[in-house]
Amino acid sequence: MQVFKTFFKIAKKRWKSAAIYFVVYVIMTLMLSGSAEDTYTGYFQSTQLSVSLTDEDDSTASRALRDYLSSIHNVTQADDEAEAVLDQIYYRTLDYVVTIPRGFEEHLLSGETDGLLSSLSIPGSTRGAYVDQQISQYLQSIQLHLAGGFTLAEAIEQTDSALSSLPKTEVLSFREEETHTGDAVFYFFQFLPYIMFLILCTGMAPILVVLNRHDVKERTVCSALPGLKRTLALTAGCTSYSFIIWILLLLLGLIRYGNDMLQSDALYAVINSFAFLLFSAALALFISCFAPDDNILNMVANVLGLSMSFLCGSFVPQSILPDSVLSVARFLPAYWYIRANNMLAGFGSEVFDSSFYWQCVGIQLLFAVAVFALVPVVMRQRSVSTN
User: In sequence order, what are the beta bridge partners of 55?
Assistant: First the structure.
């Protein structure tokens, strides 16, 4: 009992670091959750972008392409100065720049596909790829009609008619309809791994570092307190501390989202977050075994937290991450946490699968067990090397 009380006496003195991350998370949630539903719904809707166009060919085909782009985007005349255009792209006031060179119509009629246009957008931008796909679809349709024997005017007319008759996109939800849980709730859970890990590493790990110092530990060993009781007291302290942080974060969600946090799919998200809580607590305990000072501990916590968040899909949706990144992320528990959350929310066209959801939770628990198993091994090794 004395060790348990000492644990929370130290925690009381070191509450500020944990409180800072908690407050930051509250602000982050309030700022981002309001736009969460629009952000993810936007993946399934057409978006009007800012496009700058220069028509050097001024032919029937180039004017048709210009009219097509103007019908779906905000098209403006390109600035003559290249530096000004680059500035507009850099500051995101312009999404896409396209130049129709001289000889465009001739190359189109001859069936050429490479080098028809020159374009500029932010490297790796989904918006740039979006316009590229629309232009490619339009030009390929014209060339198909030309190959079928139509004249250029007829090919343009047929293409415009076909594209205008395409059905409107509907936004589908992959969650059970009776739950009606807002997307903002799952956006809240999307950030939870990062902040939970940071709070435990910067708030709980330093307490364990103090209690595991050689002089403090030796005094405890010399006392009448059995080693098993000391271990159980530390375990109870870590469990209580982690559980309190988890409950506070869930209360924040309950206050912010109300009944949405009590729906069945949100309760699945709560279970998912508890599994990751156990891994976070295990990793914080493992890091504390090396007795780092506060600066190193903060650095390690931020590096690991940010790395997992970016690689696994907390900050960047998994649906747009490269396969090479996801291949690496599969070896991290945060990946499986985000996969489960994506299924519950329907993000990235994920469909809820009960068996796969429990598989994701189980994998996180296995990670937690594996890290917990390493703790006594490291502690024993450090104890031998110290002696």
Answer: 100
120 within 8 A of 97, measured Cβ to Cβ:
yes
**Residue recorded with tokens 């003195």:** 13
Bridge partners for 74 per DSSP: 50
For tokens 């991290």, the residue is 332
Q: Are 24 and 247 in contact (CB under 8 A)?
A: no
Give the count of alpha carbons within 13 A of 174, CB side only: 18
Spatial CA neighbour of 36 closest among 308, 341, 244: 341
CB-CB neighbours of 244 under 10 Å: 13
- For residues 48 and 170, give the distance between their C-alpha atoms in angstroms, rounded to a whole number: 16
Domains of the chain: 2-40+178-386 (no CATH), 46-164 (3.40.190)
Read off the pTM: 0.63
Strand partners, 99: 54, 118
Report the Cα–Cα distance between both ends of the chain, in Å, rounded: 27
Buried b (16+ CB within 10 A) or exposed e, 254-283: eebbeebbebebbebbeebbbbbbbbbbbb
Within 8 A by CB and 6+ apart from 147, the residues are: 111
Question: DSSP 3-state assignment of 349?
Answer: helix
Q: pLDDT tens, 145-196?
A: 888 888 989 889 988 888 776 554 444 444 444 444 556 788 888 888 888 8
Residue 51, beta-bridge partner list = 75, 96
Name the token pair of 345: 């929310």
Instruction: In whole angstroms, give the CA distance from residue 286 to residue 234.
Output: 13
Q: Which residue, among 126, 112, 117, 130, has the nearest Cα to 72 in the 3D structure? A: 130
